[in-house]
Amino acid sequence: MKKIKYLVAGLLMMGLSVPGMAQNANYNDLLKPIEQTLKSNPNLDAKGLKDLTKEYEKEFKKDPKALVALGNTLLMSKKYDDASAIGNMVIAKFKDCGDAYVLLGDVAAMKDDGGDAAMWYQQSMTMDPKNPNGYMRYANVYRKRSPEESERALNLLKQVRPDYPIEAEAGNNFYLGGNYAKAYEYFAKTQKESLDQYYLVAYAVSAYMNNKKDESLDIAKFGTQKFAQNITFDRVALWSAVDTQKFDDAITYANKIVTTDSVEKSARDYIYYGLALKGNKQYQQAIDQYNKAFDMEKNNFKPYQYIADAYAEMGQEDKALEYSEKYMANNQDATPSDYAKLANIYIQKAAKGDANKQANLDKAYNIYDQMAVKWPTIAAWVNNMAGMQASKAGQDDKSVEYFNKVVAMLGNKENREEDETNTLKSALANLGYYYWITKQNLDAAKPIYEQLVKLDPNDKNARAALGLDKPEDVKK
């Protein structure tokens, strides 16, 4: 509920719940000395407060919007009881004043009472159905607790106020609640040219989080042009450009971020700068950026993995292993990808064919074996990957050992998922080829290909081996 409290405070500061304030300079001017007095004397007693607001209340006793504006001023000074009194007074005289109900809901929200806040916002929706403030506040209360209820309120607003641009508001609502899929769904219905910068940031980030990287880059680029001072657009553009392999663009955005003195740098900034440079094959410069990221966050060892990747691409396997092993030693939550990268360095080192070739291959195989035990749900995929690496290294017997493990795991498995079936097909295809072509043993290959052709009736090698197609159709 505290997030709702802070949101309400922010909305009040922007004047969202008092749309009439900007239209009435008279009561806006008279509110200013009240605001200033409350800021300078937050502990003003009841008598002093009554004297402070008496003339204002008398002047605007027939103007509900002016009175609600006073209530909001009291609320921001944490005069909750006095703000509530104003709200109740307005409702007693003007029952259809939706902003008065919103005021009472805001009081409840600032007191961390989400249920009471939602009740008052709903009252605003009922008594003043064309006022968007009640709907928006109600949706904000429910955006994490019940996204469906939040969305229902917004759609109801759209029904009664077709002219009201709920898409941007709804997108921002879901964005603030961490529901990026729904946020993107609504923002995608807007015109980016019409969005203010905060909503445009939310749109760009939501697109990025939904793997719409090209679109995110397009939105962020637009934001860098329209709101050049907001560095967030450059950051989103940097992430998106790296992920879409537009490395020259990414380097441009990264340079702006790290050379702007007024920008507080983050480790993520330097990591993505490094990724952009690595993508551009500027390996040593990339390593320099990764080291800066590590210097900023000494307890985050992920930059070591990126350094290892850079050295691996440079062909410096020993340095790659040094940093990869440092990373693994300090990472209790290493992922399968982390293990696979370490194994690949040993494979790459073995491919150079020195005297330690077998030792390096054995280390890679050992890592794959560890992965299969550590993550049994992906063991078949791991064994298939190990088999392909063994085959690539010219160790066919070792590859067959791994491929047979895959078939044993998945061959008779019920309710195989699609990715598991693809893994099984890969293992069967490699086994069939081994027996038919490498060993020249068609009898051994046939039962393997018979199993494969049931899964993939169009596999050319299986069809050729089984006499369904011509032998020249064999895929090498």
Supply the helix-strand structural class.
mainly alpha
Give the % helix.
over 70%
Number of continuous helical runs: 26
Q: What is the first-to-last residue Cα distance?
A: 63 Å
Proportion in β-strands: under 5%
Mean pLDDT: 91
The succession of helices and strands, N to C, reads HHHHHHHHHHHHHHHHHHHHHHHHHH
Over the alpha carbons, how many angstroms does the gyration radius reach?
32 Å
Shape: elongated
Q: How many strands appear in the DSSP assignment?
A: 0
- How does the major sheet shape up? none
Q: Would you identify the regions where 5 or more consecutive residues have pLDDT less than 50? A: 14-24
Show the helix and strand layout.
Elements: H1 2-14, H2 25-40, H3 46-59, H4 64-76, H5 80-93, H6 98-110, H7 114-127, H8 132-142, H9 147-160, H10 166-176, H11 180-187, H12 197-209, H13 213-226, H14 231-243, H15 247-259, H16 267-279, H17 283-296, H18 302-313, H19 317-329, H20 336-350, H21 357-374, H22 379-392, H23 396-410, H24 418-438, H25 442-455, H26 460-465
What does this structure look like?
- With 476 residues, the protein is mainly α.
- The chain has helices at residues 2-14, 25-40, 46-59, 64-76, 80-93, 98-110, 114-127, 132-142, 147-160, 166-176, 180-187, 197-209, 213-226, 231-243, 247-259, 267-279, 283-296, 302-313, 317-329, 336-350, 357-374, 379-392, 396-410, 418-438, 442-455, 460-465.
- It is elongated and about 100 Å long.
- 73% of the residues lie in helices and 0% in strands.
- The longest helix has 21 residues, at 418-438.
